[in-house]
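Notes from hallway chat w/ T.B., transcribed later so I don't forget. T.B. wanted the structure written out for a chain they're using in a teaching module, and asked if we could keep both sequence and structure tokens in one place. Agreed to drop them here.
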Amino acid sequence: MKKNNITSVDDYIAEQSVEIWEKLNELRQVIKRAAPKADEAISYGMPAYKFYGVLVYFGAYQNHIGFYPTGSGISAFKKELSVYEGSKGTVRFPIDKPLPLMLIKKIVRFRLKENEHKQLLKKKG
């Protein structure tokens, strides 16, 4: 599935099957609309979005799309995410179900505000 020589999100998405490719593009667009100033990169071998630090990562797997909004992104939306498998910093969206795009948008915006707040505190301190 994934090759070690991936250097861009375009490359990462292009390597996936059509079914996963479509979902990843949908996810990517939601993230970019929610955080238009975020830098897009490959980190830990998967797409990452950064603005004053990491906002979110995502990754494609055989049966799910892993979404990594850090521990705070998971805990802040614990109730809404409870219908999905996951762990402290991860949620798994099944391939055979629609992505919860509005929830993803809310999580990305939450992480954006969180990182902006941390940056503001750094400048004051």
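Follow-up for T.B.: The beta strands are 39-43, 46-50, 54-60, 64-68, 85-87, 90-94. Might be a good example for the class.
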